[in-house]
Amino acid sequence: MTDFLALPDLALRTLGGSVTAATDESFAAKENLLNPWPPRFSPLTFGAKGQEYDGWETARRRPGPDGSLGHDRALVRLGLPGVVRGVVIDTAWFKGNYPPHASVEACAADGYPSPSELEDAEWTEIVPRSPLEGDSAHPFPVEVERRFTHVRLNMFPDGGIARLRVHGEVVPDPALLSGMTIDLAALENGARVTACSDMFYSAPDNMLYPGLARNQAEGWETARRRDGGNDWAVVRLAAPGRIAIAEFDTTNLKFNAPAEVSLSASDDASTWREILPRTRVQPDTRHRFRLDADAEAAYVRVDVHPDGGLARLRLQGTLTASGEAALQARYTALT
To answer: Which controlled-vocabulary keywords does the entry list (predicted)?
Structure first.
């Protein structure tokens, strides 16, 4: 039921997600919903508006002239559009001020619409109105096979929600990738780590995040090996392509960088051919290597020898004809 938690959070602020509008944020800012860290709480930290919360909290609603309460809602632009496989509504630390119910809707919109323009979008309910408890994470699987760009969180009628997580599979727009030199290993282009030997300190998908890692925790780091082997990760590329340049970034890994790295390619992740032999790398350094022009792949395996971490992995190249066709077919089927 919660297998979707292993998938990327498409709404995460780190991946470009944004809370673009909310009906109310009297007590705590809407932007907190997408903070990448676990919700924090410091008791007896009172500001001018009351206890401070690391979440989104609205004012208490009162019946209007017609006797209705209405409800609060927040509009989220996904950082990475895609198919939503599950949602987590987390009321951490909200114990006497959480909403009793919530729901989530989603829509797909081209371009960069404003919140007012999205009012008339075609919204699909992906999480029906469901009961919530205080100080709890509520996972909801989603079974709508469509590509979405925005979600709308509804709370009934008011209260506080610490985090909204929207886990799913990235579905990029092929018009932005076809015929271009792109990062075939970028999460935002649809790449994913499908297997790895170790993720003791941090997840290997971190290597595929946009931007530069700000600290050691924002990359992939393994435990110290004692068995004479080496650590590795398998990456499914955004689509089959030709890799021209491989970049191994050990920024911030001053004492945990590997001694060497190597790279292998595959069409199906079952048989591998080496495209970069074991090559020495330095701590806290971006390394770029030009590869053979015929380095075609649908998957790559990055080996770190013997262990350690990588802040980022970049594989610059172009899509093959079959890669472009596969991206277009999936995009068309989901829109």
So the answer is: Hydrolase, Purine metabolism
- In this structure, what token pair is assigned to residue 184? 């075939």
Cα–Cα distance measured from residue 29 to residue 38, given in angstroms and rounded to the nearest whole number = 16
Q: Specify whether the CB–CB gap between 302 and 266 falls below 8 A.
A: no
CB 253 within 8 A of CB 311: yes
Chain segment 172-185, per-residue pLDDT in tens: 999 999 999 999 99
To 5 degrees, how large is the angle CA 71–CA 141–CA 218? 95
Joined together, the tokens standing for residue 149 give 């760009």
**pLDDT of res. 43:** 84
For residue range 186-198, what is the model confidence (pLDDT) as tens digits? Answer: 999 999 999 999 9
Cα(60)–Cα(117) distance, integer angstroms: 28
pLDDT higher than threshold 90 for residue 12: yes
E strand or H helix at 330, and its extent? Answer: helix 321-334
Cβ-count burial 225-252 (b if 16+ within 10 Å, e if not): beeeebbbbbbbbbbbbbbbebbbbbbb
Q: Chain-wide mean pLDDT for the chain?
A: 96
Q: Contact at 8 Å (CB) between 242 and 317? A: yes
- The Cα–Cα gap between 73 and 317 comes to 42
Q: Which domains does the chain have, with CATH numbers?
A: 3-170 (2.60.120.260), 174-322 (2.60.120.260)
pLDDT of residue 68: 86
Residue 49 clears pLDDT 80, i.e. is over it: yes
Flag whether pLDDT at 292 surpasses 90. Answer: no
Separation CA 89–CA 163 (nearest Å): 6
Question: What CA–CA distance (Å, rounded) separates 173 from 140?
Answer: 26
In a 10 Å sphere around its CB, with 0-12 CB exposed, 13-18 middle and 19+ buried, how is residue 269 labelled?
middle
Whether 287 and 250 have beta carbons less than 8 Å apart is answered as yes
